[in-house]
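Suppose a colleague, Dr. K., hands you the sequence of a protein chain of 824 amino acids and asks what its three-dimensional shape might be. Before reaching for any lab equipment, you can write down a predicted structure in token form. Begin with the sequence itself:
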Amino acid sequence: MSERKNRGRPAAVVTSPPMLPWVLLLFVGSGAAALVYEVVWFQLIQLIIGATAVSLGVLLATFMGGMCIGSLLMPRFVPRDRHPLRVYAQLELGVGACGLLILFGLPALGHLYVANVGSGFAGIIFRGVLCGICLLPPTVLMGATLPAVSRWVDNSPEGVAWLGFFYGGNIAGAVFGSLVSGFYLLRVYDMATATYVAIVVNVAVAALAFVLATRTAARVPPAAKEKLAFDRGALPTYVATALSGMTALGAEVIWTRILALLLGATVYTFSIIAASFLAGLGIGSSVGARLARTSKRPGLLLAGSQVGVGLGVAWAAALVSRAFPYWPIDPALATGPWFNFQIDLLRSMVAVLPAACFWGASFPLAIAAIAPRSQDPARLVGGLYAANTIGAVLGALVFSLFVIPTFGTATGQQLLVWLALAAAIVMLVWPAVADAPMPFARRAAAAAGALVIAAITASTIIPIPPELIAYGRQIATFRGEANYLYTGEGLNSSIAVSEQEGGVRNFHVSGKVEASTEIHDMRLQRLLGHMSALMNPHPKTVLVVGFGAGVTAGSFLLYPEVERIVICEIEPLIPQRVAPYFTNENYDIVHNPKVQIVYDDARHFILTTHEKFDVITSDPIHPWVKGAASLYTKDYFELVKQHLNPGGVVTQWVPLYQSSEDVIKSEMATFFDVFPWGTIWSNQYANGGGYDVIVLAKPEPLQIDPSALDARLKSHPMVAAALDQVELGGIDGLMATYAGNARDLKPWLADAQVNTDRNLRLEYLAGMANNVYDAQIYEDILSYRKFPEDMLIRSPEAKERLRPIMTKLPESDQPSAVSGQPSH
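The predicted structure, expressed as tokens, is then:
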């Protein structure tokens, strides 16, 4: 049946039960595709604009802002006589087309961004422009889908209930999309494949919508009712809906920060948290839709759902601060990741689901509260959706950029409780709420009761324990072993400084020890700095990726020829609050006039700077942490290579613990693909066992003159003393750490998966292996090691003296230090 013939048909078939489930299926597919796109687009754009909280805030605001714009524009610019399902199909095809354009067009926009980006506020504006160009078109189309289909149902309780079911179906699809993208599409394939799958889903949804449009009639309300005055009685519902969106996204930001500590900040953890949150929204929206169908006072139910939100937030806060950290769970006992994933999903669901269900119920109840028969359903749904989205944008930005870094997650959760109860009070006491007229005394009593509930509930929320910030998922193993000197929740990370018995100090980032004064950690930090400086005869400019405790950066201060040191650090609290606890080890690096600290994502800094360096050394966080793998890609190493001066040296940390063989192979193969003359240097145990290594390279073959190196050490007595302190004294100590080179390891790396920007393979491999402790990996690497005849030059006597030192095999009885949490 043509669209022209459908016009003016009666609406009786619109609520026909046989057709409505098919429309519900449309929303399931649409939601699944949307979440796949969201994951892929966020990864693609973060590679260009960086992964700082500011960048992510701009990214998220643009994404959700586009959906808000779409929900508002659709009822104003799409004629009401067009069949809603045809409009829906066209929107889905548009989303798929945008997905394809972004996949192939983003590199060109990236070049434009890199060529024109500035620092400070100008840089933030330019990031917003790039996000807008990429994300606004598809997200505007996404935001228009629910208002479009809302015209296909009438404003009766039955029709409003189905709108709630459509909303819930969309969320159910989003749950599936979140899990399938994180656990399968991107783990097994890559971003392009994930995008193609989402496009196929869009096309299938569009085809089904076109078919349904030929079998059903479009409801066309009388033209006289096209323009309606704003109903002031609906204002409190809009306010409550906006507050609900604000608390929902604010809570997701806070819970993601805390649960990532508890479960480990892998890409899989973020998928689990997102799926748990979305599942709660879907369940709640289904229940809310059923209640909206039968209730005569949905406004009061909306108020009750906001009270439930406040109680749910307090419930989650109690679990993540008082209960979950003290569960006797040792993740190292699991032989594979899947058992831990089950436990992680259970804890995430138990914490997040209650409040999320109440948030999910709020939207269909809000629709029912302001759904007069005479109003255009698209305007009704679009306005509410826009209010909810505006609140969500504000919640995400305010809580991530201001509340958490300024006040902490505990205060943030208390604020969520007060905001939720404020939404309930708005619905209870605002005189204009049509379905809830109450005498003043009763309204005052309701408001007082809500305030009492908020006060009592908020008072139960306490800060997360410092052990959780320090040891994260390993808290059951290490609880009670340290005295905490400092804890803080920053813009991007939660950090702590602890001191163990014997005076060893540890610096913790997001549940992981990132640096310490323990001998093995000190050896690694100084090896990164001194080996980099010594392999370049005249290092003047240095770039250090990752501040840590400042020890690696501080090592370069011992070289008078070094004139400039740039340190890239994503978390401002680390240099400001952590560095003073390691002043003796880092030589007070923060206050040295040679030093410039850049608070930005290191990849973004290298991508946008025109400066070149004699040394670039990188000690990023472990690659299983979500986002870190972008500092281990082939594309990133190509950028590093482009920013090296002639004769420049690059070094990169590669941990051998919490890694499997395929993870180590991926890291090394990716580095050696760009630097084919790369070498490996080991941070060894006293008996020769492996702990972690660094890979070191120049664009050309590395050549070492032992006599010149020895003379240089003697001319820098402070350098020699620093190396002696960590058992790396003299030429012999340094050369004994040699563990091989790229050419020797080619057979071992033959099956390695190269990590690139387009697939971020390492992020998914490492996320599966963060529970693995395989001491055999280091022995396998050494089994390919040969004496580097071509690397040592001009000193035949020194070469022969170093031969047994550089080819000594480790003893067989390696220590089992990897049985617990490694200290780096």
